[in-house]
Design goal:
single chain, mainly beta, nine-stranded parallel sheet, six-stranded parallel sheet
């Protein structure tokens, strides 16, 4: 393919960076995975993931994340949040437990208690509930919990 005077006949195609598993994209450009719930999308049920997740839509359920959670502006989480790190710009209606650092952006609204290791609050952020800082009491898992519907995202 000749582009801008390049006479090369090579076609640039992505090459796999890791062996392909059943649920793995063979053309992933980085070792980490980012799960995304896009704007205009509603997910009903609990989500448990060990990878980063970004929510720009709505989640009606609990979110358990062993990595970073990003809640975009306008996003809604109707349920509890448990994560290692979280940056929230949307609305949470439930308890928020973050093992490391929780960042509340200026557009965020939290209706529930907060338990976190470290807290950053931008001017304009709102939360209604109690706040405890220091070590988070325990890591919550859906495994072995009766009565909860589970949606696994890997």
């Amino acid at each position: 393919m000749a582009l801008f005077g390049n006479n090369s006949k090579e076609v640039n195609t992505p090459t796999p960076v890791a062996p392909v598993g059943e649920n793995q994209n063979p053309y992933t450009t980085s070792a980490s995975t980012m799960n995304v719930i896009g704007k205009g999308t509603t997910v009903t049920g609990d989500i448990e993931t060990s990878s980063d997740i970004r929510i720009d839509g709505k989640l009606d359920g609990n979110l358990f994340c062993k990595a970073r959670v990003t809640l975009g502006q306008g996003a809604i989480l109707d349920g509890n949040l448990n994560a290692s790190h979280a940056e929230l710009a949307g609305e949470v209606n439930g308890k928020v437990e973050v093992k490391e650092m929780l960042t509340l952006k200026s557009s965020s609204t939290i209706h529930g208690d907060i338990n976190t290791g470290k807290l950053v609050i931008e001017a304009g952020a709102k939360f209604n509930g109690s706040c405890k800082m220091g070590a988070v009491s325990k890591e919550v898992s859906l495994n072995g919990t009766a009565g909860l519907k589970q949606v696994s995202v890997n």
